[in-house]
């Protein structure tokens, strides 16, 4: 069962607008993510141009139907953080949506959306009712966990000689966004 999500229309004075159609991106490939900015939720699509821009970044999930959950941290102005909804997660850097702790938001695959032109606006996306119910009740928790993950990643960069830190840094998509996060390292 899928759940219709309230889409957010920024062109109408930030009023909520409901759409009832299942929509796909212009190339008919579904790429969705959840946007939490100022605790407003939005599910929408990332453009092909975004994935083309990062096509050589091997850690970025490129599955055509990959749902993304995006969190806007006010601390990092003008940046949107896209976190994929994944199944078969086998590590601790996630916000789980099931009791088995295998499904949820994979923080290790977080992307930074630098420009809203990479977000297809005003299109409704659908996710399962159970995942929607879990995510919608954890908005502040998601922001907090993402902030903690970013801090942990930055700290791990300084000690990559430790195996767990090396794995965290090598598997994280944040390694493609050091400039955006103002990370100045020689690692």
UniProtKB/TrEMBL annotation:
InterPro entries: TenpN-like, Type_III_TA_endoRNase. This is Type III toxin-antitoxin system ToxN/AbiQ family toxin. It comes from the Bacteria. It comes from Fusobacterium pseudoperiodonticum.
